[in-house]
């Protein structure tokens, strides 16, 4: 009876076919024992060894064992090959999973990027240098919104349906890579387009700011020019008034000097300067032309300074130390009067006046100014003509002529009852300066602005 070996259930090469039963040996006509004539030995039966055993079962066992061993080896080889292939699929599948994860991360970030892009579009409406950038960004936003709803490729486990062989992996990898790259490209493109719009918006803002700065600068320049013109016009007005005073007073100086038969050269120089002053007063300038106004003011100021200098030169020729005829070199300057003329006092009186002024300013927070100090004889003549004998001392009799009296500005608070006057009247004597009785309220002429030095 033949023995069949069942093939392995695992895939792989088919097992070797079962062996057929070996043919039986032909029986000989006689055995050696028979041939020898021995009758006490029984004859050998079929399939029996001479020692009385049978070889057939052993042969069958060996053949069956060999067949089983061969099947086991084949099964082991097939199983090992399958495990190696599965391991390779798992390794390759991990790369596909990573690609999908990267795409999913990009997809997850699209929502925030879309929001940022829409905010940029809203903020930059009508406010970019290149409108095409906004249109391009809007297109990227629409595309990103569509991609945000797409589902990534499904990746089965290695060995499962859809991923059983390398060719399955190739197709799946192509799908996953394409999907991932689409997500990542959409993300980077949207981010870049948003940045482009934001940059264009910032450039637009910068241009607006620059334009506004230029406009502001132009406005500032215009305002500065207007302010400068206003200041120049005020200066011209002040200088003009002062020059008129100098031209007027110089006539008194010339008449007084002529009566004293003062040297001709000094008087002639004053006459020349006075004539130039009159010409400067007659000159005109466009009131809206800053340069012209400034130029005329400078011309008139120069004429005034020249007249004042020439007048002092004439006075010097008549200086004899008497009232109103003091030498300028013996006096000390204490300020500038409202007509632009320097004001002088005796130097000792000037020193005490400065100390009084420091105390006044410390107490009241304002400077103690001098409106008039020393009054030369020719000035006293002019004052007599302007105010009359009842208001002005006769030339040669005023304390102003001795450079020992001052008149302070009434508008600085020097009226009876005001703090400035009351403080100066009360504290002036500490520094040698008094308000005389005749100038007090009810004292006669009542001059709250007049103070005299008593030393």
UniProtKB/TrEMBL annotation:
Keyword Membrane part of the UniProt annotation: yes
GO biological process, one term: proteolysis
Annotated D-alanyl-D-alanine carboxypeptidase-like core domain residues: 343-455
Region (Disordered): 1-50
A Pfam family this chain is assigned to: VanY
Listed SUPFAM superfamilies: Hedgehog/DD-peptidase
Transmembrane segments: 58-78
Classification via Gene3D superfamilies: 3.30.1380.10
Record protein name field: Uncharacterized protein YlxW (UPF0749 family)
